[in-house]
Amino acid sequence: MPGMQELMEGLRAAWNSGDGQNVGRAFYLPARPDQLVAEVAAALKTGQNSEALATQVFGGGIPFAGVFEAHLNALGALGKGSWANAFGHVHDAFERFGALLKAATEPEDVEFFLPALKVLARDLTVAATKADAGVEGSKHLRKAEIALKNTFNAMMKDRSGARKPALLFVAAQLFQVYSRLNNIPFAKTLVKTLARPSTLEGVRQLKADTITYNYYCGRLFVFEDQFAEAERYLSYAFAKCHRGAVGNKRRILAYLVPVRILLGQMPTEQLLAKYQLPHFLGVCRGIRTGDLRLFESALADHQELFIRQGNFLILERTRRLCHRSLVKKVQRVAGYGPDNTRVRLGDLENAFRFLGADAEPEQVECILAGLIHRGYIKGYIAHAQRLLVLTRKGDPFPKESLRNGI
């Protein structure tokens, strides 16, 4: 990581040469204090003025110097350990920059500014999240939401389309904010807006922005219980993500694996090993074999991790698939009658009991009724005979029933 002097010299060179990418990189706010933060904090503490430092880079009378001045103040606040103060300065930098971007009329000027817009939008999200961590309320995230939404709306109104190449990136930042604020309706509105054919027609989007956007769309549809849609977005993100970006692929799989399991698509053990996801192994093996004890043990052992990743509730729902596999196994072993379509409820209760599950007759019948209702099993319960009667027409355990993840 460069120190303060290298940062200022690099920014000056990038500005003078019209290198928008490196101008943008100069505004990257580290997630934790580093050498740069320490040097800027020390400089400001010893009496150096952020305005004077910014003037050294840009000279006098350059409005962009005010953006860098606010960024230096944010680094200084971070050096003092205050994310709340750092957020205030980042917000100032973002607002100042937004005014400059709004005033830009030439397409080449807008293109030059877009990399810095992305970095500052990312900084705003990070600083707001850190500032609100462990604090009552979400005032910083709400303030970030307003700033990002105003920028998004201004970009949408740009008839020239010059600002639209950054739309998906800003939308991804809004997704993160909405997720933390639990504001799902606003996130859905965002998706609908961007889904209109006219919104991004003819606009070139960076591959990385498209991948990130699809990842957050997938997460949104997971929370909405629209698993087929979630699988579509997450699969796109995973397929397009660079094969060397193992960490990003693993983050996508944290949602894609549970969604696919719920849809009846079990991941291979090779895939789980490749991306270091051993916590899914027990769940998958339990579902494949109908081993309820293994399934429950795997879910309990990794519960904290699954909750932290946000996929515990999805995996809870896959218990139905484990029940389905167990019923199928009992039918193969103990079924009788025409095509083995009769299964004694007592045999099912014994199987549940052997695997450590609640095996009261009412509980087992409730599980079977749920499986039948959702289409996981085709048949009916004959209460008087205490039998599960499976259909003889077609597969009594239809795979197509899994596609909607109901």
Explain how this protein is built.
A three-stranded antiparallel sheet has the order 1-3-2. By secondary structure, the protein is an all-alpha fold. It has 21 helices and three strands.
Order of helices and strands: HHHHHHHHHHHHHHHHHHHEHHEE
Number of strands: 3
What is the percent of helical residues? Answer: 55-70%
End-to-end gap = 49 Å
Shape: elongated
Spans of at least 5 consecutive residues whose pLDDT stays below 50 are none
Helix count equals 21
Largest sheet: 3 strands, antiparallel
Oligomer: single chain
Class based on secondary structure composition and strand pairing: mainly alpha
The whole-number mean of residue pLDDT values reads 91
Tell me the strand percentage band.
under 5%
The Cα radius of gyration reads: 27 Å
Q: How are the strands ordered across the major sheet?
A: 1-3-2
Condensed summary:
With 406 residues, this protein is mainly α.
Helix and strand topology:
Blueprint: H1 4-17, H2 20-25, H3 35-45, H4 50-58, H5 64-79, H6 83-103, H7 107-132, H8 139-156, H9 167-181, H10 184-195, H11 207-223, H12 227-240, H13 246-262, H14 269-274, H15 281-289, H16 292-301, H17 303-309, H18 312-317, H19 319-334, E1 342-344, H20 345-354, H21 361-373, E2 379-382, E3 387-390
Antiparallel strand pairs: 1-3, 2-3
Helix pairs in contact: 1-4, 3-5, 4-5, 5-6, 6-7, 6-8, 7-8, 7-9, 8-9, 9-10, 9-11, 11-12, 11-13, 12-13, 15-16, 15-19, 19-20
